[in-house]
Give the backbone structure.
Amino acid sequence: MDYKLKVDKIATGLNIYRLLESSRFTREEIAEFLGLNSPRVIYDWTSGIKLPSTENLFNLAKLFNVHVEDILAI
């Protein structure tokens, strides 16, 4: 049996996109909060190209007041 889980980048990106759209924050403000050089990586997350690092994932959960499990799609 295969018990290995795999994170769905597209669905996770959609979750991040929905949280962003329903928040009061701009992508620029979130990038600043996370200490990113540019909001470009946030666009990569929302389009499913990349996943946030573990640290950024926990900080996004804190910022949006949700659980990490509400962001990650497995």
Q: What stands out?
A: Residues 10 and 48 are 4 Å apart (CA to CA). Helices lie at 9-22, 27-34, 40-46, 54-64. The chain has one domain: 9-70. The two ends are 17 Å apart (CA to CA).
